[in-house]
Every structure is written in C-alpha cells, then in structure tokens.
Amino acid sequence: MDKKTRIRSVARGQWLNVAIVSVTAILFAVAWPTLQLTHQVSPPIQPFVAALAAFPFVLIRANPALGWAVSAVSALVIPRVFGLQEGYDYPWQVVHILVILALLAAVSMRAAIPVVGVAWISTVLLFLADTPGTNGRGWAVGLTAIVVFGLLIRWLVLSRRQLARQEELSELERTRRTILEEKARIARDLHDVVAHHMSMVVVQAQSAPYRIANVSAETRAEFESIGAAGRAALNEVRGLLGVLRSDGQLAEHAPQPGVDQIGELLEGSRRAGIPVTWTVSGDQTLVSESVGLVMYRILQESLANTARHASGAAVEVKITYQSPIVSLAVVNGPAKRSLASALTRHESTGGNGIIGMRERAQAVGGVLTTRMHDNGGFEVHAEFAAASA
C-alpha cells in the first residue's frame, strides 16, 4: 500500500487532527524567529515563549476551553515579564493574538455556556487592560462579535441536528404505524373471512345429525369430532388475531366485497342452516364502495355471531338504500342460552366481532348500535350517509 492510499484511508477526524498539528507547527515556526522583533527575550528562552503563544492551538478540537485558558494566562504573564522592543506597541505577538481569537471562537461554539461567558469576559478585560490607547474598546467589540458569531453557528448546528433527529424519529414512527395498520387490516380480514366460514363449518357439523335422517353412531361421532376441531381452530385463529391486531381506526386498501355480494352471503348462510330472511329496498348505487364493504363485513360478522351464540334462532335482515341515510339491521331471536352473557364473554376475552364492526362503521363515518330485546333476542343496527348523486 503506497503513501497516497494510506492517507486516503485516514478517517475524517484524523485528517482534522493532522491539519491542526500542522497549523500549530507553522504558527510555532513563525512565532519563534519573530519573537526577537517584538519582545526582549534571551535566545535560550525564545522557543519556550514562542511555544506558549502557538502550542495552545493544538487543543482547539480536543479541549478548546483548556487551550484558551493556557493562551489567556500566557497572554497575561508575557508582557509583564518581558519588555517590548522599541517601535512595537502590542503586548503580544500576532501569532499569539490569532491563537487566542481562534480558541475563543472554538469555546463559544463547543464549550458550556457558563464557560463561554467566562472566556468572553476575561478576554475582553485582558485586551482592555493591555492594548495601547483606545484600541481596547475596538477589540472588545470585535471579541464580542466573535463570541456571538460562534454562538449562532453553535445553535444553527444544534437545531439542524435536532431537526435531523426529529425527522428520523418521525420516519420510524410512520414506518411503525404503517406496519401496525397493515397487521390490523390483515387481522380484521382474517377474522371476517376465516372465522365466518369456520363458524359455518362448526354449525353444519353440529346440526347435521338433526337435519339428516338415520345418522349412525359412528357418523354422529365424526360430526362431533369435526365440530370440536372447528372450535379449536377458531380459538387458535383468535389467538393469532390478538397478536396481529392493533388499536386505531384503519383504512381499507385492497379490493373487497360490497353490496353486490350481500345476496350471495345471505343465501350461503341459509344453506349453512341459519334460518335467515331478508328484505332489501332502495337503490344500492347510493352506497359508496367503502360503505358497501363495511355493510358486507358487518352483516357477515352478525350472522357469524348468531351462529356461534344463538344457534337455531331465526334471523331477520333489513337493508334500506335511501338518501340521506343507508341502514342495515340484523335481528335474531332468543338464544337457548343467554346471548348477552355470551357476547360479554366474547368481548372480555379479546374477541374482535362487535369491536371490529363498530370500528369499521366509524371508519366510514357511520354509526353502529347493538341492543338486547326483551325476549332475549339481539339486534345490530348500522347507519351510513348515502353517497352523493
């Protein structure tokens, strides 16, 4: 590996360190031979005095506050120990002035604010005390400008870093929300589709021995096994949905069934053994695609809940497509056991049925209500705004 390749492999921070050391060496090389022109210093001591003027610059990146302190103390001591050459009025070499100004700027950009205040005031007082004539006032203004400029750069860099950090956090949050929304959409669709059809399988398996004549004991046992397996699968699906599901109102993205498929859904439920009747009135073109999807899913879930919690109960469905309100009502008769307690257990154990229906209705600006009837039946009622003509 040649020298150029090794230099290119040096990190950016190392390049800065090399540059700082190089500048320090140049400053020292200038300060030493010119010291005899500005101060009355014996030749053996000249390199040490020149080092006090130039070497603090090497700390401008590693520890600018310490470098400033060394430079300021040496600036306070040198004019009081060594006399000035005739014709030179300033108490310090030009190199020393440049170094202390550079270190003051670095302190204002990187050190703690109290340290910046101390460095600024001390440097101003030093220049006011030792510079000839009225030059100290001009230096005080210049030093103040350097500190203000350094603070502005400091705050600008800090604000940019905070903005970049906030943008990074916002992007992470958007990504997280997108993932959660997609998981929730998948969970809801799995619940609406898989759970519904599996419920139909369980209902058919359980009712088959009563709907089919001359069922043998072996066949009856087979149907019971199918029903038990279906119920176990439903429980496992609900456990999986609990992992996928998240809070919040979510939008639909993928193509889904709508009001055109409601008739097929009702016919399929009747073939599955649910005694369902229905009436449909009005113009279904008043329903938007998103509302049609929600109506389909609410009806699907309502029929599945009836099959699970009120097996054998008669179901009446009424759909009205009118402006300005489109409505859907699903009413089932009394269950053999308390439907209210069944639905309460369904909600408390993490079921997604009624919660999912309510979320879907709210997502498209609709309202869904549920209530128990005096005879033990149950009603699901949803209303939506009709689409504009």
From TrEMBL:
SUPFAM superfamilies: ATPase domain of HSP90 chaperone/DNA topoisomerase II/histidine kinase. GO terms for cellular component: membrane. Residues 182-247 form the Signal transduction histidine kinase subgroup 3 dimerisation and phosphoacceptor domain. The keyword Transferase applies. Keywords: ATP-binding, Kinase, Membrane, Nucleotide-binding, Phosphoprotein, Transferase, Transmembrane, Transmembrane helix, Two-component regulatory system. It catalyses: ATP + protein L-histidine = ADP + protein N-phospho-L-histidine. Pfam families: HisKA_3 (PF07730). One of its GO terms (molecular function) is phosphorelay sensor kinase activity. Its EC number is 2.7.13.3. The chain crosses the membrane at residues 15-35, 65-82, 94-127, 139-157. It comes from the Bacteria. This is histidine kinase.
